[in-house]
Amino acid sequence: MSEDLSIRVRNELYKKKMKHAELAQMLGISGAYLSDILNGKRTGPKAQGHIKHIRKILGI
Q1: Nearest alpha-carbon partner for 24 in 41, 44, 32
Q2: Closest by CA position to 2, among listed 40, 36, 29, 31
Q3: Which CATH number is 44's domain given?
Q4: HSE of 7 in the Cβ direction (CA atoms, 13 Å)?
Q5: Cα 57 from Cα 41, distance rounded (Å)
Q6: Closest-CA residue to 3 (of 41, 53, 29, 58)
Q7: What angle do CA 47, 29, 11 make, to 5 degrees?
Q8: Total structural domains in the chain?
Q9: pLDDT given for residue 1 in this prediction
Q10: What residues make up the domain containing 17?
Q11: pLDDT score recorded for residue 2
Q12: pLDDT (tens digit, 0 to 9) for every residue of the chain, 60 residues total?
């Protein structure tokens, strides 16, 4: 995930008053795995699918 998109995700979480853990729960993944995706440590096809879902949930 690009740094720009990571910042946008964090900003949208703040605007929607959502917690990181809430988003992870909605995605059905752990908070640590979500953090890895947002920090660019996970970039495989599964992570890309989660990124699409994140964009849909947050309206990015």
Answers
A1: 32
A2: 40
A3: 1.10.260
A4: 3
A5: 21
A6: 41
A7: 75
A8: 1
A9: 52
A10: 3-58
A11: 61
A12: 567 878 999 999 999 999 999 999 999 999 999 999 998 899 899 999 999 999 999 998
